[in-house]
Amino acid sequence: MRRILAILLENEPGSLSRIVGLFSQRAFNIESLTVAPTEDTSLSRITIATTGDDKVLEQIVKQVNKLVDVIKITDLTERSHVERELLLIKLLAMNDKSRTEVKRITDIFRGSIIDIGKQVYTVQLTGDADKLNAFIDAVSNETEVIESVRSGTVGIARGEKALRV
Fold first, then answer.
1. CA-CA distance, 128 to 110, in Å (whole number)?
2. From the CB of residue 22, how many other CB atoms can be counted at a distance below 10 Å?
3. What confidence tens digit (pLDDT) does each residue in 56-100 have?
4. Which residues are CB-neighbours of 118 under 8 A, at least 6 positions away?
5. Positive or negative, the Cα torsion across 128, 134, 138, 141?
6. What is the pLDDT of residue 84?
7. Which residues are registered as beta bridge partners of 155?
């Protein structure tokens, strides 16, 4: 089962490596990992997307919660939440037909062309993983993908609940 964990922790050297180490010790794969300071620069927020056995994940969550640097951990998949990824992708746009198709598909997916070169368009797109995968599939049928990079999942609970001290 796919899970998205949000962790609030002290912004200290080594904090991230201790959390990742727990996943590694249990041979649990991390699909994506994002981390950044919060509005309080002494704290960081980590979002981890992972899949696997519920029992093992429950053990990892309990062990992460015991770490000194960790203030709070929550499983966003257990409640209503919003998740997004950022995709930056370079596409070959050699002629008018391919340029038109890149623009059309980008508009359909509500993306933005953020850079234009002689033969390359760079597109920015945000959404869930399914949307980004669908965009890549659609645009790959029309032109060549030169390079792509994704941010990984970030998520936040809907409503009044907040991950804070």
1. 13
2. 17
3. 788 888 888 888 889 999 989 888 999 999 999 999 999 999 999
4. none
5. positive
6. 95
7. 83
CA dist., res. 29 & res. 26, Å (int): 9
Model pLDDT for residues 6-64, shown as the tens digit of each residue: 999 999 898 889 888 888 887 888 999 999 999 998 999 999 998 877 887 888 888 88
Continuous segment of H or E residues that includes residue 58 = helix 54-66
Lookup: tokens for 67 = 């770490």
Handedness of CA 52, 74, 156, 124 (dihedral sign): negative
Q: Are 64 and 19 in contact (CB under 8 A)?
A: yes
**Can you give the pTM of this predicted structure?**
0.82
Answer for the pair 109, 125: CB distance below 8 angstroms, yes or no. Answer: yes
CA 120 to CA 149: how far, in whole Å?
15
Tally DSSP H helices, then E strands, for the chain. Answer: 4, 9
Provide the pairing of β-strand 2-10 with 70-75: antiparallel
Whole-angstrom Cα distance, residue 154 to residue 158? 13
User: Which residue in 117, 157, 149 sits closest to 32, CA to CA?
Assistant: 149
Owner of token pair 């950044």: 36
Contact 128, 8 (CB under 8 A): no
